[in-house]
Amino acid sequence: MARRRKRKSRRRQEGRRILEHVPQYSIESGEEKPVTAARKFIQAEGILPPALLLVKRNEHTTDRYFWAEKGLFGAQYVEENHFLFPSLRVLESPAGVEPVAVGSR
């Protein structure tokens, strides 16, 4: 039986491309919960938003968080709703706007 491919959301793909341009920090959670480890790391290092934190929970699992002006969000939520975050609008390229060649006669 042939397996169907999962449809990829264009909006989420665009959000993922935008998040590629944000500074990333990789940390390990240790004994703490991943979100607590991320918050403590942000506080200790004085990280300014926007930033993406990759928190390694164990050898198989890594949680992704986005540090924004309004707080800490799951990266998947931010990928799907990147237009809600003002700090990401600067990184966004205007859709459908292409330079027009102007010729002189």
What's the tally of helices? 4
H/E element string?
HEHEEEHH
> Kindly state the mean pLDDT as a whole number?
86
Q: Note the beta-strand portion.
A: 15-25%
Percent helix, as a range, is 25-40%
Number of strands: 4
Low-confidence regions: 96-100
Query: What general form does the structure show?
Result: flat
End-to-end Cα distance, whole Å, is 62 Å
Structural class: alpha+beta
Major β-sheet strand ordering = 1-2-3-4
Q: Please give the radius of gyration in angstroms.
A: 18 Å
Largest sheet: 4 strands, mixed
Question: What does this molecule look like?
Answer:
The protein is α+β, with helices and mostly antiparallel strands and 105 residues long. Helices cover 30% and strands 21% of the residues. It has helices at 10-19, 34-45, 75-80, 86-89; strands spanning 24-28, 51-56, 62-68, 71-74. The protein has a 4-stranded mixed β-sheet with strand order 1-2-3-4. The longest helix has 12 residues, at 34-45. The radius of gyration is 18 Å and the shape is flat. The model is unreliable at 96-100 (pLDDT under 50).
Question: What's the gist of this structure?
Answer:
The protein has four helices and four strands, in the order αβαβββαα. It is of the alpha+beta class and 105 residues long.
